[in-house]
Amino acid sequence: MGDCSIRSLPAPAIALLMARKGRAADAAAAAEHAFGTPLPSLPRIVSGGALDVVWCGPERWLVIADARQAVDMGGVEAMLEPVFAGLASVSDQSGSRVLIEVSGTRARDVLAREIPVDLHPRAFEPGHAALCRAGFVALLLWQRSADPAFVLAVPRSYAAGVGRSLLGSAEGVQAAVAATTV
């Protein structure tokens, strides 16, 4: 039996950042200056200071901030809009996504039954990200650490179904599920 944990992460503040035409380099420079966090140009997650930035398409990023800090600053949009004014559009996505973490020695095996992405450690390393599907649900996946720990950003209305599907996959690979809170 292997070990696996499947759990919802505390609700963060999430925004979608979309560079305006021809302004991606300027938006990247603004992010680096304001937050010390670059905007990845490849499917990656970059963590820095108070923000995590996940590539989610050409010139598009999911910006994840600690919810308390974002509230203190008037919300995630209020935190980002002054930095990216004229460079990128900012859309609050905090209520639209649930972050599900799948971790443990059998995490790759569990995810392999659901997600058509090569998660072998040589192909998908900590910091890598992918736009993919679990069944018919489009989601964003990234590897948080080499433990391994993976995070899935799932549309809120599908989170319970994806969670149940992950539990079924864990059963299918005979992984002992240590914790579940989805």
How would you summarize the topology of this molecule?
Layout: E1 2-8, E2 13-19, H1 24-35, E3 45-48, E4 51-55, E5 60-65, H2 67-72, H3 76-84, E6 88-92, E7 97-103, H4 107-112, E8 129-134, E9 137-145, E10 149-155, H5 159-172, E11 175-181
Task: Give structural notes.
With 182 residues, the chain is α+β, with helices and mostly antiparallel strands. The protein has two domains: 2-8 and 96-181, 2-Layer Sandwich (Gyrase A, domain 2); 13-92, Alpha-Beta Plaits (2-Layer Sandwich). It has five helices and eleven strands, in the order ββαβββααββαβββαβ. It has helices at 24-35, 67-72, 76-84, 107-112, 159-172; strands spanning 2-8, 13-19, 45-48, 51-55, 60-65, 88-92, 97-103, 129-134, 137-145, 149-155, 175-181. The strands form two sheets. It has a six-stranded mixed β-sheet with strand order 8-9-10-7-1-11. The longest helix has 14 residues, at 159-172. The protein is globular, with a radius of gyration of 17 Å. The two termini are 22 Å apart.
Number of helices: 5
- How many separate domains? 2
CATH second-level architecture of the largest domain: 2-Layer Sandwich
**What is the CATH domain class of the largest domain?**
Alpha Beta
| CATH fold descriptor of the largest domain | Gyrase A, domain 2
Helix content: 25-40%
Residue windows where pLDDT falls under 50 for at least 5 positions: none
Overall pLDDT, averaged? Answer: 91
How are the strands of the biggest sheet laid out side by side?
Answer: 8-9-10-7-1-11
Summarize the main sheet: 6 strands, mixed
